[in-house]
Amino acid sequence: MFALTGCGDSKQVSEVKAMPFSYPSDNVQDPNLTVDQALDHRKICASTKWQVLMTEQHQNVVQYDCTFEGVKDSLLMTVDKKQQPPNYMFPDKIGDLYQWTYGADGKPELSYVALHYHFPNGTTKDIRSSGPIASDGGLNFTGTGWVVMLMEEAVKQNIETYDQFRSDLYGVHIPVKPASPITDTTYGNTLSKLYPDKSPTIAAVLAYLWQGAPTEMRTFGIDKLGYLRVQHDPAYYHLLFPVNPADVQISTKDDSAKPYDTPPKPPQLSPDKLYCVNEQCYDSDQGLVGRAPASILAQETGSSGSAQQAAQVQQPVQSPSQQAMQQAVQQDTATQTQGSGAKVTMSTYGNVVASFYPGKPPLDAMQDALTLIHSELSVTDMAPSGYPEYQVECESNGECVGGTGTPMGAVTDVATEMFPVNPMDIGRNGIACDQYVCKDGKGNVIGRNPSIVAR
After folding, report:
1. What secondary structure letter does DSSP report for 34?
2. Which residues pair with 401 in a beta bridge?
């Protein structure tokens, strides 16, 4: 219990400000700053307050409060609010709080560090642990570890807003606000309009992130109707955008459908149409592309029996991209063979990587291969030529960005994380290479220039 005894630059406040800003850990190097230098000149603070308090044991405590900029306009909190019920109370002010307590020797010592939340109803809450942090594999930091993390953030002068603070501290991406509002009639194949300066794939990914999709949700490129294929997982169903009713040819209700199983494609489905089962909709390659709008749900017919019958007559359907990948593998394995136990290397041509992973879908094989070579890149789809379509765009200034708009670094470095294109394929099927990367006829990055030496 504290009672206010004074505020402003009292003797105790001045004494604390002159102290070294030292981390409570011998394993982390101190920033060589005084408390004043570390805390009184932060760009992130909309306001700061120093005051002297007294405990029930009559100990003097110097307290510092910083209220962060950008909480009201936080894009991260905008996404958070979409995931909570309407009556959930979010803080209207967020900052950090430091306290130094005077001991029996008359000297102040850092005794308390926390994030400080203020709510619209006047209540407050101090956050004394991190919760799972994405950038640290879901680890939860408490005690000294949490205090050191907050103090390290405090001395970073490039942190100017709450979103930047939270992004840097927790390892999360700041969502990008769309150019126009998302409504109930924002169909999944119109997402490129929300981010007109981005490619269709990146625009769709950004739209899903804005809706609250986690960065670990896998995507598999844009299909022929313009929809983004997304990971088939019930945890993500509520994030799906509605499909255009005009694109739906068949809709059925199946109470026996299993959550993680992709419903079989109806034999009569046209290649340029969708089919919906319950609330999920799929393209002709059986990719999950969206949710059924209300008008389609109202038309759904059938039962578990009819769905089972359809499953009995429906043969497994393989997507064209997978077929093309297998054909490319068969063509190239004549010139590049692998013995048992062979592993992909940075010299393996991108269109034969799947042959090292027999029995795996080409897209999964490519992701495993990229992990093996410690590449940070991801793949959205397999091109008809058999090469992977990397989820990266490289600008004219030589800088590259990933699928979520995250900076990936210079093209000179990013190219070395790709598998090379076979020199014999350059000039075929629209494949062309600049100094560093190769693209197909649709502009997709499919590999590095084979003349580039791998890292």
Report:
1. B
2. 393, 407
